[in-house]
Design goal:
By secondary structure, this protein is an alpha/beta fold. It has twelve helices and eight strands.
């Protein structure tokens, strides 16, 4: 799906008074995340209206190149501009693989461009000196690992970071076999757990595995991006009670 899919008509949005309504744009590369992300966001910010852009090609092209190519970075800037022109108060990017492009896009707009995994990296550095990073795509492993490294550097910390790919998990998920994906991720987590104080699940699609990691008492803290990522919204949409 190479064109944005909007749940709200931008023209209709522009015609409405948005001055008192919290309005967020989200950019996804996996269509299946749309409903869950909107639910989480609405639970964080009462009355929130959400405009979704869905563009699977951003992830497909990043995976094909092994990194975010120039045309993907340019399109991220365009999506940020679309969000700004539609009246959104921020753009939330739910794909960690294109997180670095999202960071760069923020320089071209006046609204915040939020990476889903920024709070997760901050928590990982705060929770432990031995950090594991699990990803099902090498295109995600690099950006997430670098984000953790940069976060640690800003906090003047030097944790040991162990980064690993979960072979076969992404292919299983793409084929519709969520159960196989989760088994492979959990097996990789079990191997990494003894070496780490905290384990980061680099992709939002890996988040459901967290509940199964709780069966291993005494294990590391396990972090996923969706819940922690939403905490950023409080800075954009402060509570009326605060």
């Amino acid at each position: 799906m190479n064109s944005p899919l909007n749940t709200l008509d931008p023209l209709a949005v522009a015609a409405q008074d948005t001055s008192h309504t919290p309005f967020l744009a989200m950019l996804h590369t996996v269509p299946g995340l749309v409903t869950g992300m909107e639910t989480l966001a609405a639970g964080t910010v009462p009355g929130l209206r959400v405009l979704h852009y869905v563009d699977e090609s951003l992830l497909q092209d990043t995976v094909a190149h092994g990194t975010t190519p120039g045309h993907v970075r340019r399109r991220l800037v365009n999506y940020a501009r679309y969000a700004e022109e539609s009246g959104a108060q921020a753009l939330f990017v739910s794909c960690s693989s294109i997180g670095e492009a999202a960071t760069a896009a923020a320089d071209f707009v006046s609204i915040p461009v939020l990476r889903i995994d920024t709070p997760m990296a901050e928590l990982a550095v705060a929770f432990g000196d031995r950090i594991g990073v699990l990803a099902t795509l090498s295109a995600t492993l690099g950006p997430t690992t670098r984000l953790v490294q940069d976060t640690a550097k800003r906090q003047d910390k030097t944790p040991t970071i162990t980064a690993r790919i979960v072979d076969g998990a992404f292919s299983a998920l793409r084929a519709g076999d969520r159960a196989m994906h989760d088994r492979l991720v959990l097996a990789a987590f079990s191997e990494l757990a003894a070496e780490c104080d905290v384990v980061v699940l680099a992709q939002a699609s890996m988040a459901p595995v967290i509940e199964h990691t709780q069966d291993q008492s005494g294990g590391p803290t396990v972090l996923a991006s969706p819940d922690s990522g939403m905490t950023q919204l409080s800075t954009v949409f402060p509570s009326k009670d605060s």
